[in-house]
Amino acid sequence: MILRHIAPALLGLSMLTAPALALDLNAMSEAEKTEFGAQVREYLLENPEVIIEAINILEERNAVAEAAADKELVAANAEELFNDGYSWVGGNPEGDITLVEFMDYRCGYCRRAVPEVASLLAKDGNIRLVIKELPILGDASVMSSRFAIAAKQVAGDEAYKQVHDALLEFSGEPSEVTLRRISDGLGLDSDAIIAAMNSDEVTTEIAQTRELAQKMRISGTPTFVMGTELLRGFLPADQMQQIADGVRVNRVD
User: Is the domain 78-250 a CATH 3.75.10.10 member?
Assistant: First the structure.
């Protein structure tokens, strides 16, 4: 892109210097390459805004390419994303759009996202929510996810949602004592949930979600999927609503 801007200037200079000077670097002699490089340097020093323009164009192209690649990832893994058969489903289960959230209980931005997602679901009313447990921030994250998934497997979806919300508000370190306290406070069967935390079923669910995240090239939380869009990082409710509106407009049924 830089050559597009400097070509006219270099062509003008070539008329005043050597007729052999050309913009095909492979056809140039070492002397011509040296002269060409000097002319490029001089032009860029006199017109540094050309570099900024080129960088901006490159970043735009990269963003477009990354978005296209993300869409392909979503399409290739759609069934696991939207209908894996084990992740908790909330919002409007019959909604016309599914929002998938990969989250970690120890993630500060995941906690910031809680009221934003709740606001989106309440105001829109037609969004199905899928929560995927992706503990990536150490042993405390894994322990919290095991506890939440065990609660779902032992006591069902309503219990999971209660535990999920409690863990996102919990500021201490998870341990059997503190997790039992949370479970007892919710009136759940703490013994059964604690016993199930290290079960093969819980281990398998976490492993499957991690494998999906790797295929989706997800390395941070929160990460959202909405329609064909892969949204990496925290987003406020109004931005998510704009994306939802765009998904509906562009959807091909």
Answer: no
DSSP string covering 1-52: -HHHHHHHHHHHHHHHS-TT--S-GGGS-HHHHHHHHHHHHHHHHH-THHHH
Q: Whole-prediction pTM value? A: 0.76
| Burial state string for 203-230 with b = 16 or more CB within 10 A and e = fewer than 16 | eebbebbbebbeebebebbbbbbbbbbb
Sketch the domain layout of the chain as residue ranges: 2-72, 78-250
| Burial 47-65, CB ≥16 within 10 A → b, else e | eeebeeebeeeeeeeeeee
Q: pLDDT per residue over 179-235, tens digit each?
A: 999 999 999 999 999 999 999 999 999 999 999 999 999 999 999 999 889 999 999
**Which residues fall within 8 angstroms of residue 163, CB to CB, at 6 or more apart?**
147, 148, 151, 152, 182, 183, 186, 188
Closest Cα partner for 131 from 95, 170, 166, 157? Answer: 157
Look at residue 253 in the predicted model and tell me its pLDDT: 57
Contacts (Cβ under 8 Å, ≥6 apart) of 168: 105, 110, 111, 114
Helix, strand, coil tally for the chain in percent (to 5): 65, 10, 25
